Amino acid sequence: MEENRNSAAYLYNNLKNKAQRSFVIVFALFAGCLLSFPFQGRVFYYLLVGENIDLKQLIFIVLISHFLGLILAGFLARDIRKSSLLIRWTFVFCLLLTLLCLTPKGPHFFLIFIFTGFFSGICLASFGYFFHIVTPSGNRFRTAADLLIIMV
């Protein structure tokens, strides 16, 4: 039986090396988490229902912190070892901050969104550097397309 070309299993089996496979899977999961939580996803709005805050201002602050993380990672991720280390630690920080949102709401609640945006910016920029190093130049477009297919 032939696999569907758009299925995750088909994409996973056609990626050539282990680094590419793990990169695609981790990046797709992380991007899905980002889109549902700090960047105006359903979880974001569900957690802020009934709060007396200006959502536009909070979203703007989260985006600024995300861009600051992207810029900082440009200075920090200078080789594959540093990039890999940054990816691991910021991924853990983002996961822990996301879990903190399950606690009762308090003054720390809004800082969670800001720091999640900052660490996710560092993580995504480090992923970009890692993507540039790990993926062969002739295969980058295909790997990026595979990422988009998995995320959709």
Secondary-structure topology with pairs:
Layout: H1 8-14, H2 18-36, H3 42-47, H4 55-76, H5 80-100, H6 108-134, H7 140-151
Helix pairs in contact: 2-6, 2-7, 4-6, 5-6
Instruction: Note the gap between the termini.
Output: 24 Å
Query: How would you characterize the largest beta sheet?
Result: none
Strand content: under 5%
Helical run tally? 7
Description:
The protein has 152 residues and is mainly α. It has one domain (8-42, 58-151). The protein contains seven helices and no strands. It has helices spanning 8-14, 18-36, 42-47, 55-76, 80-100, 108-134, 140-151. The longest helix is centred in the last third of the chain and has 27 residues, at 108-134. The mean pLDDT is 76.
Give a summary of the structure in a few sentences.
This protein has helices at residues 8-14, 18-36, 42-47, 55-76, 80-100, 108-134, 140-151. It is mainly alpha-helical and 152 residues long.
Key structural traits:
75% helix; 7 helices; mainly alpha
